[in-house]
Structure formats: C-alpha cells, structure tokens
C-alpha cells in the first residue's frame, strides 16, 4: 500500500524532530566510514537517503513494510529500497555478519510486543563483528514542570489513551527496554541518553512546537554494544 500525503508529512516531521534533537548527527556510534548499512523501518527514507549521499562508497539498504512515495528521481545508486515486515525474521533474507551499521527507529507502533527480543537478536546476527546498531523510539509520556498538567487535561487523556490502545499487542514502552534487550542479545557497554522534548510555546529560546511528546534513541555495538536512549518530553 502506498502512503497518503499526510502520512508522508508526519514522517517528514519526525525526521526533522530527530535531526534537531540530535544536532544534525545521523548516528552516534564511533564508526568512521560505514560501508554496509541497513535501515530498518525507513519511514519516508530521509535517514537512508542522507546516509547514502554522505557516504557514497557505502551500500545502504532500507526496508519498511510500506513503500514511500517521496524518494527523489535521482536516488543514489548506492541506496536500495525494499519492502519487508519487521515482524518477520530478518534472516536469511538479510545475511548474517553482513552490516557494520544497522539503524532502527520509530518502529514500536508496528512491532508486536512479543517480537522485540527476537527482533533485537535478528539485528545482532546481521552485524559484522565490531559492527554497531542505533535505535530510536518515541515514548508517549506527557509531563509538566509547572504541575499544571492534570489527569483531566485533554493532552494527558490522549497520552493515556494512546498507550492503552498500543498495549493491546504493542509495547509503548519499548524504548525503555532496549538496553536490556541488547545486553541479553550479547551486546556490551550498552549506553542510553534521555532527551526532553518541549511541546507548545513554553520554552524560552529556540524550541520545537510539536505534537509528538516523547522518544528514545539507542545505538549498540556487536562486540561493545551501546544503547543511546533518547526520551523526548
């Protein structure tokens, strides 16, 4: 199925949010020039496209259950776009010990709750020895420093309702578990970082005025696993 235009715009907004919060960095693991890159859940294709353009000598493969309409006509030759359901086992379709950087972000709404441990193990199998994985997930927890956000507030009710709906067979708190899942899958030196994401007009200075409440970024290493969890409130 092709995505509607408003969905494409939502995915574009998500990419810009992460670019802002990550200060323009595409990835955080200490790898100089990745050569084989896999992007799981590419969304609109922004990250994969920028990686292919930034590292023209690399091979970038981007997979998602839905194809995007928005890739440019002059798509780089080193970028391959493929359809794949991340709830399905990644191997042997994608070769073990093949990639030195795997990127996965904002897939929690699509990944089934009981799939997460196997999904992380699949990713670890695909990594070369010494390879890295970076992951990012939104976490929809609304908080207020002023204490004005009550349980009756519409935004709080939306947040609670969204999480309750996801909990039927998804894990809205998946980002909080990524570190332990990575360790269990055999990664080490796992790290995480939390970010606050401003909503509305209350922050001073340059701020994001967003509808998206909370997220988590992670990255990991095949021998020295790292997790960066980025939470946006």
From TrEMBL:
Gene3D superfamilies: Vaccinia Virus protein VP39. InterPro entries: SAM-dependent_MTases_sf (IPR029063). GO terms for molecular function: methyltransferase activity. It comes from the Eukaryota. Signal peptide: none annotated. Pfam families: Methyltransf_23 (PF13489). This is S-adenosyl-L-methionine-dependent methyltransferase. It comes from Diplodia seriata.
């Amino acid at each position: 199925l092709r995505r509607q235009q408003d969905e494409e715009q939502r995915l574009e907004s998500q990419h810009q949010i992460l670019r802002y919060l990550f200060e323009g960095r595409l990835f955080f693991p200490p790898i100089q020039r990745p050569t084989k890159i896999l992007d799981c859940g590419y969304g609109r294709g922004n990250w994969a496209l920028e990686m292919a353009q930034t590292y023209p000598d690399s091979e970038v493969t981007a997979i998602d259950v839905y194809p995007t309409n928005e890739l440019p006509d002059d798509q780089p030759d080193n970028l391959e776009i493929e359809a794949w359901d991340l709830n399905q086992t990644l191997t042997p379709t994608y070769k073990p010990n093949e990639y030195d950087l795997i990127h996965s972000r904002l897939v929690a709404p699509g990944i089934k709750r009981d799939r997460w441990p196997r999904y992380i193990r699949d990713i670890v199998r695909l990594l070369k020895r010494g390879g890295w994985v970076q992951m990012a997930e939104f976490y929809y927890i609304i908080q207020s420093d002023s204490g004005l956000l009550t349980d009756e507030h519409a935004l709080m009710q939306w947040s609670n309702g969204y999480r309750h709906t996801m909990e039927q067979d998804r894990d809205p708190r998946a980002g909080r578990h990524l570190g332990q899942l990575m360790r269990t899958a055999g990664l080490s030196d796992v790290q995480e970082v939390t970010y606050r994401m401003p909503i509305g007009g209350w922050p001073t200075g340059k701020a994001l005025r967003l509808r998206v409440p909370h997220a988590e970024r992670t990255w990991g290493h095949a021998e020295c696993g790292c997790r960066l969890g980025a939470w946006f409130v």
